[in-house]
């Protein structure tokens, strides 16, 4: 049969052919269909999108077929489609939600399935719990039939690579142009065009191929693109745009005299940014830059949403402009909720996801890249120069995350110690606040903070530190590890 199917921070993921099988995908699709039918919104239909991973077309077809068999119309996206575009398609077609087949930035052997409800953002826990309960009900009611062996359709069946034959009740859709027109309304493309920028783009072989280069090219930007073809092995690496994976982008930016390098992860919902000098701009640096830009250039006013693991430089800016900060557990679904309900003009997380007012409450790497180009164009300065200006105005913070592996026994011992972990001071500074909405976070009187979060699936702890100096950062890392015997 299968391993337990459960929805984590951003959907259900598994190894292809081991956990992520056609039988399991069809089972989850029927559980999603049951959720939609229970809500009475089946007639609105569901969007189905997929990325560039192995067997992506066939998995998408399997999901579409299950929905059609349940009497739900399907809007099947043609070709690889980014997660934010699939989510936006819900708004285009007035659908009841969407299913996106993607494992995002995970290694090539993985694929995944995420359900996106009608509000076009990540499903909240109470929704995914209902889907998991539906899976259990299906297995209990029809243990033999729950896994229906249906031959996969696709290039190994009666379909071609590029033009699938949809099931009856399933219409092929291409939301590309409608999405492009929407993001163009959020970004100052004329200003970008006037700036005469040169931008290098790395879509990392993923679903975002064709988006940034089209939008920026149409605006008049000189664009260079590489890794812009399908490779389910992602060039032998992870489709994750971090400082460790963007060496080639850094080299091309510097060699070509470009003002920006923009990268997308496998499903284009996360961003990676290289500045003109080859520096990697971390999300914890870019988010304050963007909030500053929204406040000072665009003239927007409103609160900001961030996860418990994301920089407090956003808090300093919000305080200066009299705005609130909404802190949430890790996971963009909580950021999206604050964007929807609290009027936030920006929501973001340190792992590279963001969205803004007027957009869908789903993280969008394409929009992030376009806003980076707008910032360089409007300020007439590199991101590093603009960052220095922000530091001079609001003070500099030094952020880092350490992933610390343990044995299962060590993990259990550390978890026990964490329950009582309330030191009066750290690094010679009083502990002012303890926050436990996601892990254990201690905020010091001088604004520095530490966060310890255990992995939910493996013997691993993530230690986040943000400090006022490099020395304080190292001191906090060492002291917390020593106190918790975490090594």
UniProtKB/TrEMBL annotation:
Source organism superkingdom: Bacteria
Alphabetized, the UniProt keywords read: Isomerase, Magnesium, Metal-binding, Phosphoprotein
- Top-rank EC class of the record's enzyme: isomerase
Question: Needs which cofactor?
Answer: Mg(2+)
Give the GO terms filed under biological process for this record: carbohydrate metabolic process; purine ribonucleoside salvage
Keyword Oxidoreductase among record annotations: no
> Looking at the keywords, is Transport present?
no
Q: Which residues form the Alpha-D-phosphohexomutase C-terminal domain?
A: 431-480
Q: What is its EC number?
A: 5.4.2.2
Q: Where is the Alpha-D-phosphohexomutase alpha/beta/alpha domain?
A: 5-138, 178-278, 283-394
- Pfam families membership: PGM_PMM_I, PGM_PMM_II, PGM_PMM_III, PGM_PMM_IV
Q: List the catalytic activities from the record.
A: alpha-D-glucose 1-phosphate = alpha-D-glucose 6-phosphate
Q: A single GO molecular function, which one?
A: magnesium ion binding
Record PROSITE patterns: PGM_PMM (PS00710)
Pathway(s) per entry: Lipid metabolism; Glycolipid metabolism; diglucosyl-diacylglycerol biosynthesis
Name the protein family: Belongs to the phosphohexose mutase family.
How is this protein named in the record?
Phosphoglucomutase
Record organism: Desulforamulus hydrothermalis Lam5 = DSM 18033
């Amino acid at each position: 049969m299968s391993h337990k199917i459960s929805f984590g921070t951003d959907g259900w993921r598994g190894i292809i052919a081991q956990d992520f099988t056609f039988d399991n995908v069809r089972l989850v699709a029927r559980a999603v269909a049951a959720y939609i039918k229970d809500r009475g919104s089946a007639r609105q239909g569901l969007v189905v999108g997929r990325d560039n991973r192995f067997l992506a077309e066939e998995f998408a077809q399997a999901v579409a077929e299950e929905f059609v068999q349940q009497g739900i119309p399907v809007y099947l996206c043609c070709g690889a489609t980014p997660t934010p575009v699939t989510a936006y398609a819900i708004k285009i077609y007035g659908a009841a939600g969407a299913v996106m087949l993607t494992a995002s930035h995970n290694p090539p052997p993985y694929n995944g399935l995420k359900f996106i409800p009608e509000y076009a953002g990540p499903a909240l826990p109470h929704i995914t719990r209902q889907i998991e309960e539906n899976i259990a009900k299906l297995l209990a009611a029809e243990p033999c039939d729950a896994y229906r062996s249906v031959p996969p359709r696709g290039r190994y069946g009666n379909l071609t690579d590029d033009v699938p034959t949809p099931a009856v009740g399933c219409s092929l859709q291409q939301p590309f142009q409608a999405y492009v027109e929407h993001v163009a309304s959020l970004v100052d493309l004329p200003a970008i065009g006037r700036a005469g920028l040169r931008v290098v783009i790395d879509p990392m072989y993923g679903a975002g191929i064709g988006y940034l280069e089209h939008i920026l090219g149409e605006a008049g930007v000189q664009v260079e693109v590489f890794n812009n073809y399908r490779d389910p092995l992602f060039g032998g690496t992870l489709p994750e745009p971090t400082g460790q994976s963007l060496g080639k982008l850094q080299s091309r930016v510097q060699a070509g005299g470009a003002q920006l390098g923009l990268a997308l992860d496998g499903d284009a919902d996360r961003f990676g940014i290289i500045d003109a000098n080859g520096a990697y701009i971390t999300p914890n640096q870019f988010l304050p830059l963007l909030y500053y830009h929204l406040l000072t250039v665009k003239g927007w006013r409103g609160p900001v949403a961030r996860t418990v693991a994301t920089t407090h430089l956003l808090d300093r800016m919000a305080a200066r402009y009299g705005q609130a900060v909404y802190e949430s557990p890790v996971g963009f679904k909580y950021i999206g909720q604050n964007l929807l309900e609290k009027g936030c003009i920006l929501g973001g997380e340190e792992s590279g996801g963001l969205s803004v007012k007027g957009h869908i409450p789903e993280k969008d790497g394409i929009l992030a890249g376009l806003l980076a180009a707008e910032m360089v164009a409007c300020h007439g300065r590199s991101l590093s120069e603009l960052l220095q200006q922000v530091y001079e105005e609001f003070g500099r913070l030094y952020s880092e995350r350490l992933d610390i592996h343990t044995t299962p026994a060590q993990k259990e011992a550390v978890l026990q110690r964490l329950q009582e972990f309330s030191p009066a001071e750290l690094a010679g500074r009083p502990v002012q606040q303890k926050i436990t909405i996601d892990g254990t976070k201690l905020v010091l009187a001088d604004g520095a903070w530490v966060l310890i979060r255990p992995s939910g699936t493996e013997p691993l702890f993530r230690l986040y530190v943000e400090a006022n100096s490099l020395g304080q950062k190292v001191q906090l890392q060492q002291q917390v590890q020593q106190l918790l015997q975490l090594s």
